[in-house]
Amino acid sequence: MTEIRGFPGEYQYLSNFYPYRIVFKDLVFDSVEAAFQAAKCQNFSDRRMFVGIAGADAKKLGRRVKLRSDWESIKIPIMAKLVRQKFENDPALL
Questions:
Q1: Across 15-19, 44-48, 77-81, 87-91, least confident range
Q2: Could you give the CA distance from residue 2 to residue 28 in angstroms, rounded to a whole number?
Q3: Which range of residues forms the domain containing residue 73?
């Protein structure tokens, strides 16, 4: 099986780091990755730290936050919801 290590060129839009407006828990994020990292946080003020930052920066910040207690059981459904939102809301990406 071939490992996917990125989405260069014309396939950049497939990346969770691709700049795209995502709404999660009443906040607007600049990428799926930023919204996903924010979802790790239990409270609104902590999630707000991820607004307005790029996906790579969000990933770095996400390594330093206190994880919500249920993170392991909800992370996959949250990622699916965020990716679905990205593609369902933009026919050009779909």
A1: 87-91
A2: 34
A3: 18-88
Q: For 23-54, b where at least 16 C-beta lie within 10 A, e where not — what string?
A: ebeebebbbbbbbbbbbbbeeeeebebbeebe
Q: What is the CATH number of the domain that holds 37?
A: 1.10.357.40
pLDDT digits (tens, 9 = 90+) for 48-76: 999 999 999 999 999 999 999 999 999 99
| Rounded-to-10 torsion of CA 82, 80, 60, 39 | 70
Give the global pTM. 0.92
